[in-house]
Amino acid sequence: MFSLPGTPFLYYGEELGLPNGPSDQDEDKRTPMMWDDSPYFGFSSQRPWRAFSSDDASLSLAAQIAQEDSVFHHYQKLIALRHQEPALVQGRLELIESPEKALLIFKWLLADKEIYIFHNFSTRNYDLSPFLAEVIGQAEILLGNSDEPLGLEGLESKWVAVSR
Predict the structure, then answer these.
(1) I need a labelling partner for 32 at 20 to 30 A (CA). Which of 62, 78, 87, 161 fits?
(2) Which long-range contacts (CB under 8 A, 24 or more apart) does 154-158 make?
(3) Could you tell me which residues are beta bridge partners of residue 140?
(4) Dihedral angle, C-alpha 145, 30, 79, 90, nearest 10 °
(5) Sign (positive/negative) of CA torsion 164, 145, 122, 84?
(6) Cβ neighbours of residue 64 under 8 Å, at least 6 residues apart?
(7) With contact defined as beta carbons under 8 Å apart, do 5 and 93 qualify?
């Protein structure tokens, strides 16, 4: 969502990876926010009228702030990238054909900056050299699971900036 055109938004609890509530009804999807590991997860000093969607304290905001590789910190990075890279907001989006159906590849272009976005929807690892070989010397990884610019792990998204 943050790599696509438009204004991204987060639905309550999504920034922590909180699971939905017990039913598919909209009012049941979001349950009390888990702030910390205190009784009732810091939401209240009394039992809330709705049950929490999880009893896993590692999903609380306090726990995720303390953990560098948490869902919360990942969203912080995505938001920061949208602010730091004008190409992601003002640029032209260009789809890149991939021979693999599990790969969604596109790039944002603005002036002398290109930002390649690779989304791997499979568990298989991929070699990105067919897409980045010409520009690898100018490539900077903005976001990804690994520091290897030409590798894409299973279920990974990688954002690579190239200044020309």
Answers:
(1) 78
(2) 154/120, 154/122, 154/123, 154/124, 154/125, 155/120, 155/121, 155/122, 155/123, 156/118, 156/120, 157/3, 157/117, 157/118, 157/119, 157/120, 158/116, 158/117, 158/118, 158/128
(3) 161
(4) 110
(5) negative
(6) 16, 58, 70, 71, 72, 73
(7) yes
Nearest Cα neighbor of 131 from 93, 99, 164, 155 is 99
Which DSSP state fits 34? -
Q: How far apart are CA 152 and CA 131, in angstroms?
A: 12
Cβ atoms < 10 Å from Cβ of 73 = 15
159 close to 142: Cβ distance less than 8 angstroms: yes
- Return the beta strands (E) in 17-123 as ranges: 92-96, 103-110, 113-120
Rounded CA-CA distance 146/104 in Å is 18
pLDDT in tens, the chain (164 residues): 899 999 998 888 899 999 999 888 888 888 999 999 999 999 999 999 999 999 999 999 999 999 999 999 999 999 999 999 999 999 999 999 999 999 999 999 999 999 999 999 999 999 999 998 888 888 999 999 888 888 999 999 999 999 98
SS3 content of the chain, % helix, strand, coil (to 5): 30, 25, 50
